[in-house]
């Protein structure tokens, strides 16, 4: 896909998935800014040399990539990244928030500092980035925002103990996606999310994996970032080179908020008596869209 004349920001872009996204977009002609705090393998510390080394490696491949080593946990840090990009390239067309951090803490042990750290990167950073990117995206011919969620958060069968804060942050990005899909619809700002499965540092993998490779997620992100993607408000799940798209959609026949077109119950006992039908998927209940 041709990204000539486009400018993209990719957070968490120095390694793993973000680096793969950056290489692919730049190979397609985009000018790319990769931002990465350069934390260690457990997400601690900062090292700007990490992102600058990654940018230099991509530049050596003949690609137009710049590195940014700022902290995106604050409004000001996010503003600086957007300003850096505009000063360098004069425009912004694609914003990909890939940066993330996973830590484990059971609900009984949850502390404020741990929760704040999770929310900084999964809730506040995408909000501040979108705030400061928005005026520039409004001037783009094909503006695109891609956020990052997780199957671990969306599906109860994939959850793991200790991921309550992580899951809250990843689900928050879907709320942001839905809200901004609506807010940006008239201006053509498409906002989607990727839910990637890949063996990276967040999995504790440092060697080249033989499955679940980051580059096998990248084609889906490239599509979402392109002008060929005309949809907004979708979650693209990607794993082992396979893709499936899903979204939050209302049941057929609903007249929100007064008529959910489903099971009526006047009291708790009626809810209890109808519970097997209330929780039954529509297709099994004989309702089709």
Automatic annotation (TrEMBL):
SUPFAM superfamilies cross-referenced by the UniProt entry: NAD(P)-binding Rossmann-fold domains
Molecular function GO labels: oxidoreductase activity
Keyword tags: Oxidoreductase
Keyword Magnesium belongs to the record: no
Highest taxon above the source species: Bacteria
Keyword Oxidoreductase: yes
Protein name according to UniProt: SDR family oxidoreductase
Source organism of the structure: Pseudomonas edaphica
């Amino acid at each position: 896909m041709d990204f000539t004349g486009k400018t993209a920001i990719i957070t968490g872009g120095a390694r793993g998935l973000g680096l793969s996204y950056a290489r692919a977009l730049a190979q397609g002609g985009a000018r790319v800014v990769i931002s990465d705090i350069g934390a260690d393998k457990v997400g601690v510390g900062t090292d700007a040399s990490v992102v600058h080394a990654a940018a230099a490696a991509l530049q050596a491949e003949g690609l137009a990539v710049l590195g940014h080593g700022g902290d995106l946990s604050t409004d000001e840090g996010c503003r600086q990244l957007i300003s850096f990009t505009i000063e360098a390239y004069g425009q912004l067309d694609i914003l990909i928030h890939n940066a993330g951090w996973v830590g484990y803490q059971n609900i009984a042990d949850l502390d404020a500092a741990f929760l704040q750290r999770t929310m900084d990167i999964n809730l506040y950073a995408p909000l501040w980035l979108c705030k400061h990117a928005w005026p520039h995206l409004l001037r783009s011919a094909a503006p695109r925002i891609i956020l990052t969620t997780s199957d671990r958060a969306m599906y109860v069968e994939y959850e793991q103990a200790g991921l309550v804060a992580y899951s809250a942050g990843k689900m928050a990005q879907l709320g942001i996606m839905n809200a901004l899909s609506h807010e940006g619809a008239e201006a053509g700002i498409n906002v989607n999310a990727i839910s990637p499965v890949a063996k990276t540092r967040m999995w504790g993998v440092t060697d080249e994996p033989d499955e679940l490779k980051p580059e096998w997620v990248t084609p889906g992100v490239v599509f979402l970032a392109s002008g060929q993607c005309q949809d907004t408000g979708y979650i693209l799940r990607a794993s082992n080179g396979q893709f499936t798209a899903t979204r939050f959609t209302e049941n057929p026949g609903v007249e929100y908020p007064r008529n959910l077109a489903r099971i009526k119950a006047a009291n708790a006992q009626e809810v209890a008596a109808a519970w097997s039908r209330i929780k039954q998927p529509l297709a099994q209940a004989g309702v089709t869209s």
